[in-house]
Amino acid sequence: QVRLVESKGGLVQAGESMRLSCTASGSIFGLSAMGWHRQAPGEQRELVATITGANITNYADSVKGRFTISRGNVKNTVYLQMNSLKPEDTAVYYCNTRLFGSDYWGRGTRVTVSS
Q1: In degrees rounded to 5, what are phi and psi of residue 89?
Q2: Which of 13, 34, 38, 42 has the least C-beta neighbours within 10 A?
Q3: How far is it, in rounded angstroms, from Cα 55 to Cα 10?
Q4: pLDDT, the chain, mean
């Protein structure tokens, strides 16, 4: 089993920054790509950013240039640096990974951006 735990989100004003972290634990041998998704109220969950084991990154168009995904020195931790936040970034953010064909998700952390 793989456990993913996100850091606590919070409330920020538009234009401010926030960094989320996610740490994987458990049976994580072979852990490679990790990512962040988000789900806004009344919307479907959507991809935000991913990072491979080789640190190749991919971003949703809506966050390109504002968000940065990175890994810690220990590869079981992934960060999401969110700059220039907008009210439309308000969502529950989920960390995820796929390991040996199974998808694992964190419980999510709520980020609210006020205008």
Answers
A1: -80, -5
A2: 42
A3: 27
A4: 95
